[in-house]
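Possible regression after last week's pipeline update?

I re-ran a chain I had predicted before the update to compare outputs. Posting the input and the new output here so someone can diff against the archived version. Not blocking, just want to make sure nothing changed silently.
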Amino acid sequence: MQSSGWIKTFSLVFGIAIFFCLLAVPAGAVNLHPGDKAPNFTLTDIDGKRVTLDQYRGKTVVIAFWSTWCSRCEEEFVFLRDTMGKRDDVAVLLVNQDSENAIPVARIRQMKERLGIEFPILIDVGLALWENYGINALPTSVVIDGNGNVKLVETNFYWASPDNLLAAIGQR
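New output (post-update):
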């Protein structure tokens, strides 16, 4: 009986260790990779205007997937606002996924105003773009060149993200 107790304890500790190892694997966007053609999309912004990826052909596009509960998303917004806000060669599209939680658009507008964000905020109803692009972590940013090709998929906005995004976009 003593050996079965030891085996149970070992199995439990081993299972917990495997669980935490799996958590340590970095999250990533599963469908898009650098060099891929970015799928076109049409979404509606918080003012009811239809926005497509194709309307930004010729510009570098940064698509930032985010949610109102995501503190790192706010960090990324401030970075994008401060570095991309005045650039006419870069379009930043903020794709909100709170529609599944029925977050009122007024709350999203309040956040936009509080942070001084002027980029379009698109609502991903039904998470169609989220699923099409294979997004599985927030925040996730996708940089697309002027020809519609993916240049970078950056997840989680961590310490190296600003440099990675600037390198993909091109500093000015």
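Follow-up from reviewer: compared with the archived run. Residues 2-24 form the longest helix (23 residues). Marking as no regression found.
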